[in-house]
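Pair request: fold both.
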Amino acid sequence: MLTASNRLRSSAEFTATTRNGFRVAKTHLVAHFHLPSGASGPAKVGFTVSSAVGGSVVRHRVTRQLRAGCQGLVADLPAGSRLVVRALPAAAQASTSDLQDELRAVVCAVIAKSTAQ
C-alpha cells in the first residue's frame, strides 16, 4: 500500500500534474509527471481509472494492481514530484505482470523525458 503521504488526493494536484507535466503513453497506461519548482516533501502518486475501463469491480482491480506496482517505484521518484497514472480501456484485459511491467516502463520513460528538457 502507498502511504497517505505518497498519495495525490486533491483534484487541484491531479489537474496541475496532467496539465503542466510530461506525458508518456503505452498500450494500457498513460503517465503524467510533474516536478514543481522548489518542490520538497515526498513524491505523490495518483491513479485515474475511468468507467471506460469497465465496471466497478474491474476498475478497482486495475487500481489495486497499479497501486501495488507503484510501491517499489515511489522511492525512485524525485522528492516533491507528482505522478498521475491513467489506465486506458485495454488495461481491463491485461494481466497483473503486464500492467506492472508497463507501469515501470512508462514511469521510467516519463522521468527520462522530464530530465532531458
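--- second member of the pair ---
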Amino acid sequence: MSLQLSVREQIEQEIRQRGPMPFSRYMQICLYDPSSGYYSRNAEQFGKAGDFYTSSDVHAVYGRLLARQFDEIWRALDRPVEIEILELGPGRGLFARDVLDWCDKKFHDFFAALTYTLEESSPALRTKLQETLRAHLDAGRAAVPEERPSLAHRFSDGYPAKHDQIPEGRPTGLCRTLQPETPLIVFANEFFDALPVEILGTAGKLHLALEDNRLRETWLPPLAEELDFLDRYGVQPEEGERIEVPMAAQRWAQQIAQSIPCGVLLIIDYGYTRNEQLAGRYRGTLMAYRHHSASPDPYQAPGEQDLTAHVNFTALATACEQEGMQVENLLTQSQFLMGIGERNQFADAFEDCQIPQERAKVALQLKHLVTPAGMGENFQVLIASHGIDPKRIAGLSGLSFTGGSRLSAFSYQLSVKAIVVVPVGTWSLKTDS
C-alpha cells in the first residue's frame, strides 16, 4: 500500500519529472489536487472558525436579495416554464439554501420553474452540499452533479510531459442539469479569484525549480499570449513588480459565455479594471489566507492555505463581449445590493426580527455587506446577458442604484441602529489586502 504524497512532495516529484513548474500549476495543485488540495481535503475552510468567510456567511439576506434579483431575471425572460441557476464553486451551499428557501416563501411561480445546479469540484464540499440542501435535493429543486474532469482533475498520465504544453485551467464544459437550450443564470461568487494565475516580472514568467532538493523560484520566457494579455487588459511589470496573468479565468469566462444561449452571467468578486492598474493600483494582488490572517507568502503552507488573486474585470467583460454577450457597466456590491433592497426598505433582512436587539444585529450585518466600510466597496459586480431585450436587463433593480448621498445616509442609519448593541468583531476578512 503506497503512502499518500503531501502537496509539497507531489510538487517536487512533478518538477523532477517535467522540469520547472509554472506558478499556475503550483497554485493548481495547492488548491485543487483531488486528495490533498486546499479545497479538496475538507469543508471547514469557511466561516469564523475557518480561514475566511464569504458574503453568505454574514447573513441570509445576501441570498434573499439575490433571490429577488433572480426572480426579476426570470420575468425579464418572459417567465419561462423552466429556468436553471448554475452556481460555480458553491462551497457549503449556504447561499443556494438561502436563495431556494426565500424563493419557496416569496416567489412561488419562479420557484416552481427553478432548478438549482451546484458545480463543485471538491469531494468534501459535495458531501457537505448534500447535507445543507437535503430537502431541496429530495424535492428535485437542486442538483449536485458528480464532478467531471475539470479544475480538480486536470492532469493525468495522458497529459504532455512538458509544462508549457499543458492547457492550464481549461474548463471542459459546464455541469448543467437541464437541456442546453433552457434559459440559464450562471452565478459565480468568489469563484474567479481562486483560479490559478501566471506571474510575470521583468525577468520573465515565474516558475518553480528544485535546487539541492529545495524549491526555488526561477524565471523563464513567457508565452506570447500572456504578454498579449497584459498589453490588452493589464500592465507590463516594472522593476520589482509581479503582475498576475489570469489566463484560466479568461478561458472560463469564454466557456461560460458560449454556454448561455439565453440568460445571464452574474459575477461577484473582488477585483479591478485596467484603468485602475494604469493608475498604479492592484499591481500584484496574490495573497495567502489562513485562520483569517493574510500573508504575501504563497509557499508557507502548500495545500493548507487559500491562495487568491484579484479579478481582472476588464478582461472578463471583454471575453463576454467577444462571445456576443451584452455587458452592463461594472457595479460595486454596495450599488448592486442597495438597488435590490431599497425598494422595500430591506424587508428581506428584517422580516424574522422579533425584538429591537435582533433588528440591530441584522442592521450591523447588513451594513457589513452594503457599506464601504465592509464588503460593499471591495466587491465588484459584473452582469452580462444573451438573448434578452437589453431594455429589460437595464430595468433590473440591481442596476438601478446610483449611490451618492443615499448610500451615505443609509450607512449612517445602520450605524446608529447597530453599533451600540453588537460590537464589530476583530477577526480578519478574506477580502483584506
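Observation on the second member. Residues 47-52, 149-161, 415-433 have pLDDT under 50 and may be disordered.
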